[in-house]
Design a protein that fits this description.
18-stranded mixed beta sheet, binds the ligand N[C@@H](CCC[C@H](N)C(=O)O)C(=O)O, Diaminopimelate epimerase, lysine biosynthesis
Length: 302
């Protein structure tokens, strides 16, 4: 039961986005809102709820069982949910928006900030306001990519493409295509073979070249459908493109930067010589309000 159910305190939400990957933000510093998958999905519903590709619950690490061990290194835990209510390990655009919320709430300043996620701690740098009305850019150390190898195929209808299996804390299948329209309407999740490569499902990226170290992509996200941007996806795409282009900073001793265009905006992704991936992009809060208790609703008895 939440405070909202008892009518003692309203449940506040904010709405934000990073390159139009949009999120319902629920400040819950003391971890009192034990949001179910159904409640998260209702909040993300674009017709009957607030609407979002995902949900970011802002909880003190010390107040969350999955993050308490990280509390001495990161005060805040990003409890991320996809729009269908499922839990994901990591969200790259989400962690920038999460940091922007903390800054707006006076819980963090411009500069460096550590955020706990299910994929571990992510170091975030909030740039001073660029005076463009959006609060300036935010850079996240997304950690190293893992490329487990093996042949993966992405399937949409009768079409298939070879894909690269990349893990950014969450799973990705990156397919290079001739034209972004080749993936069709993406109303359903693309198939992947062998399916066992991704026991918990996967995000799928479709990529074309735009120029030297410049790509464009579409993404179908696990648990959310096609979205206008995906930060972990952009990082997975950058690494897959770099390896395809024969670039590996750990071997050459030179960092590599790719510009990644998405339907909702642009992300800049750099792979450092230590193998860590840095992603830079915008993060904007657009609204704040109060959730009607009926939207959270009473959960059916088990
Ligand atoms: N949009 C996110 C990724 C969110 C999680 C993903 N749908 C999954 O299930 O792994 C991003 O910006 O990285």
């Amino acid at each position: 039961m939440t405070d909202a159910h008892h009518g003692t305190a309203p449940t506040v939400f904010l709405k934000g986005h990073g390159t139009e990957n949009d999120f319902v933000i629920i400040p819950d510093p003391d971890g009192r809102l034990d949001l179910s998958a159904a409640q998260a999905a209702r909040l993300c519903d674009r017709r009957a709820g607030i609407g979002g590709d995902g949900l970011l619950r802002v909880v003190r690490s010390a107040a969350h069982p999955e993050a308490a061990a990280l509390a001495d290194r990161a005060e805040w835990f990003m409890d991320y949910r996809n729009s269908d209510g499922s839990i994901a390990e990591m969200c790259g655009n989400g962690v920038r928006v999460f940091a922007r919320y903390l800054q707006r709430a006076g819980l963090a300043g411009a500069g460096d900030l550590a955020v706990a996620t299910r994929a571990g701690i992510r170091e975030v740098h909030i740039a001073k306001d660029g005076h463009d009305g959006t609060g300036g850019e935010i850079t996240v150390d997304m950690g190293p990519a893992t490329l487990p190898g093996g042949d993966v195929t992405v399937i949409v209808g009768a079409r298939t493409w070879p894909a690269v299996n990349v893990n950014m804390g969450n799973p990705h299948a990156v397919a290079f295509v001739d034209d972004l329209d080749d993936a069709g309407a993406l109303l359903r999740a693309p198939g992947v073979a062998p399916a066992e490569t991704y026991p918990t499902g996967t995000n799928v990226e479709f990529v074309v070249d735009r120029g030297p170290r410049h790509v464009a992509m579409r993404v179908h996200e696990r648990g959310s459908g096609e979205t206008r941007s995906c930060g972990t996806g952009a990082c997975a795409v950058m690494v897959a493109a770099a390896r395809r282009d024969g670039l590996d900073p750990a071997r050459t001793g030179h960092p590599v930067t790719y510009t990644v265009d998405l339907p909702g905006g642009r992300l800049v992704v750099t792979e450092r010589t230590d193998g860590r991936i840095e992603m830079t992009g915008p993060a904007v809060i657009v609204a704040e309000g109060v959730i009607e208790p009926a939207l959270l609703g009473a959960e059916p008895a088990p």
